[in-house]
Amino acid sequence: MMKKRMKILAAILLLPLALCLSAGAAEADAQRGQDEAALRSAVTGEAQPYLAGTDGQDVAGSFARLLRNAVPDAKSAWAKAAGSLGAAAGIVILTAAARGFSEAAGGAANDAVDMAGALGISAVLLRDFSGVLSLCRSALDGISVFSATLQPVLAAAL
Known about the structure:
The chain has helices at 2-42, 59-104, 110-157. It has 158 residues and is an all-alpha fold.
């Protein structure tokens, strides 16, 4: 008889606790959905296609999908980098050939050939570097927007 009363008492005490936990879980799911929507809205228009097919439930699958979505842009970036590398290699070869001709002629134009080669490679690299600077500026702007959006999410999580 005593065991039966203890079981009933335990059930009476555990039932409100279970209801509170289930309500807390539902509230946490709702908050997670709001947080995910806030983070998705913080991503700029150009980067939105990268998030296609990702969700907050399957992290590994979402990360793999994100990488698959970024592959076309990565291929074009690699092609552009290979073009710049080819141009720099061409300038180095032309500079070496001109330096050889200058040496054969007595070395009078060695300094001018070296300067022309350095300027040519600088032009190729600075063309790409200006793009890198604009990407850095864009990334910093995106990080500031993202962190401003993420700060309330982290505060709620804590």
